[in-house]
Amino acid sequence: MEKKLHPANKRGTANYGWLNANYSFSFANFYDPGKVQFGLLRVLNDDFVQSGMGFGTHPHKDMEIISIPLKGEIRHKDSMGHTEVIKAGEVQVMSAGTGVEHSEFNSSNEELNMLQIWIFPEAKDLDPRYDQKDFSELLKKEDLINIVSPKTDQGENSMYINQNAYLYLGDFQDGRKIEYKLKNKEHGVYVFLIDGEADVENSTLNKRDAVGIWNTDKISLKFNKPSKVLLIEVPMN
């Protein structure tokens, strides 16, 4: 087993007034040669957006994009004809493929906190697509909930992306222990602790800390406080 810790206070940051951004990997004006990506996971941004503000229309291409609002709501509009609102408890998937333009704004009266994840697709120039789903009821189960999976191995409740990757969200009480078995021995798993405190393979994570783990077929987690966690399993090459 190999692992690399990613402490929250070592992330890249940028404060634009309307946007307070935290970058787990090199992004925009933040560049760290040791934090370009984890396997095929390219971006994990933790954004805080003021009410009424947001990202104007901009393009994407050849990327699988997953957006997870933790607080507040996102008003999304894209060149595929979708105009949607994504609220906390919901997850949005967008495959940029041959090219898509979209905008994202905070349409609530409170600060929006959202995670945005980019994963490289299995091939270039795929058809753009959009999906959105409410997981709020499933997340009450105190278990890892599969929110995203590959099209070839789509879970019963998950949405799919064009990559052999799996994303899980979970809310856990203190004292809970779980084991996660990787789908493929060539994969790694990036554990991002959204809130709480957890021991992950002899490393203690606090709020917004993360650890990337590979060369193993399973990992164990123990939650020392009520916690919310995101697991991202991706091919390592």
Automatic annotation (TrEMBL):
<dbReference type="Pfam" id="PF17954">
    <property type="entry name" value="Pirin_C_2"/>
</dbReference>
<keyword id="KW-0408">Iron</keyword>
<feature type="domain" description="Pirin N-terminal">
    <location>
        <begin position="11"/>
        <end position="119"/>
    </location>
</feature>
<dbReference type="InterPro" id="IPR003829">
    <property type="entry name" value="Pirin_N_dom"/>
</dbReference>
<feature type="binding site">
    <location>
        <position position="58"/>
    </location>
    <ligand>
        <name>Fe cation</name>
    </ligand>
</feature>
<feature type="binding site">
    <location>
        <position position="60"/>
    </location>
    <ligand>
        <name>Fe cation</name>
    </ligand>
</feature>
<dbReference type="GO" id="GO:0046872">
    <property type="term" value="F:metal ion binding"/>
</dbReference>
<feature type="binding site">
    <location>
        <position position="102"/>
    </location>
    <ligand>
        <name>Fe cation</name>
    </ligand>
</feature>
<protein>
    <submittedName>
        <fullName>Pirin family protein</fullName>
    </submittedName>
</protein>
<dbReference type="InterPro" id="IPR014710">
    <property type="entry name" value="RmlC-like_jellyroll"/>
</dbReference>
<dbReference type="Pfam" id="PF02678">
    <property type="entry name" value="Pirin"/>
</dbReference>
<comment type="similarity">
    <text>Belongs to the pirin family.</text>
</comment>
<keyword id="KW-0479">Metal-binding</keyword>
<feature type="domain" description="Quercetin 2,3-dioxygenase C-terminal cupin">
    <location>
        <begin position="147"/>
        <end position="234"/>
    </location>
</feature>
<dbReference type="InterPro" id="IPR041602">
    <property type="entry name" value="Quercetinase_C"/>
</dbReference>
<dbReference type="InterPro" id="IPR012093">
    <property type="entry name" value="Pirin"/>
</dbReference>
<dbReference type="InterPro" id="IPR011051">
    <property type="entry name" value="RmlC_Cupin_sf"/>
</dbReference>
<feature type="binding site">
    <location>
        <position position="104"/>
    </location>
    <ligand>
        <name>Fe cation</name>
    </ligand>
</feature>
